[in-house]
Amino acid sequence: MLNLTQAQIRRAVALLAGFHILIICASNYLVQLPFQIFEFHTTWGAFSFPFVYLATDLTVRIFGQANARKIIFRAMMPALVISYLVGVLFHQGNFQGAEALASFNTFVFRIAFASFAAYLVGQLMDISVFAKLRRLKSWWVAPAASTLVGNLVDTLVFFSVAFYASSDAFMAANWPEIAAVDYGFKLIVSLGLFLPAYGLLLKSLQDRILIGATHKLYS
Q1: If you count DSSP H runs as helices and E runs as strands, how many of each does the chain have, helices first?
Q2: What's this model's pTM, rounded to 2 decimal places?
Q3: H or E element: which one contains 43?
Q4: Which of 38, 88, 124, 204 has the smallest count of CB within 10 Å of its CB?
């Protein structure tokens, strides 16, 4: 963990919570936009949500479990409210106008609530797995394992809560396939792109810490 002041930690936690809210809301919008790739059904949300796991794992590594949990608890309620508002205003990718907010949209709220539940359970699982493995010699084991477990839990909770027996006939019929493909793409994106990015970011941060410590030693 970095040797930071409480003010610096509070600022970092606030910024990371804002980043989580942004990614969650964007993903809840993008999950409404299904498409096919190699004849499999998936959604664009599979390509945006892994950013949250990258941020969470770096947070645990640098700031510890307690601050990572603070970020989750700060982000989850604003993310629920904003996701609902964005989902109503831009239902299935089309702007519905401000008048759409006048009536309660059960379908959109179900997606927002599913995201809320999946985010909370998946992220806490991710933190728990990462924290147990972070001291292993190989830096990649903790983020890889936490990504595998966290994304699996998150995907199962989200799609089952959001689309089981849904009023959207397509999603109700295809959500198990979409969830499986979504999980597969999350792993491809996370392990193929974000895990190397995590390694580079971690090395960069460690180099900065070392330079800062050396500067303090000789100043």
Answers
A1: 7, 2
A2: 0.74
A3: strand 40-43
A4: 38
